[in-house]
Amino acid sequence: MAMETEYAQVQTEVIDRLVLCGGLSETCRLSEWVQSLAARYCIDDELEFAIHLCLEEAVSNIIRHGYPPGTIEPVTVEFSCPREGGLMFTVEDSARPFNPVLEPVMPVLDTGDELTIGGRGVRLLRAFAHVLEYDRTTTGNRLRIGFKDPRLQALMSTRMVSQP
Description:
The chain is α+β, with helices and mostly antiparallel strands. The protein has helices at 27-40, 45-66, 120-128, 152-162; strands at 14-20, 75-80, 86-93, 131-136, 141-148. A five-stranded antiparallel sheet has the order 1-2-3-5-4, covered by helices on one side. Helix 1 runs antiparallel to helix 2 (45-66) and helix 2 runs antiparallel to helix 3 (120-128).
């Protein structure tokens, strides 16, 4: 999927938010949340898979590698639609700086033609997301992971207007 970086300039209203505070055990809540969004916005199975994969990879890496062992810090995921047919997930944390946009992709095989351990997350994010943007904030990291679905164009417009 081609990566784009124009979404940062678009101001949008957050439609839904999930705050995870319980370590890796919270990723089941993330799965349920993505499923509920997919049902609510008629997101097809292929796109739901890509969204879930990218969000779980980002969130689990923050929990495992961003925070000191034994600490439980919040990770916030927000859902918005910056433009018709576009879905944006913003992941924020207060972990140490990590910019997956600039991180080099690790080789799949090492010098002995053995599979390497680690380094798959950045590759997955870049392969499945249409947009990947990073900002270092005053309190931590902000990663925007965007997806395009032209089928949602009319549906999103209708549902956005009809929400109370």
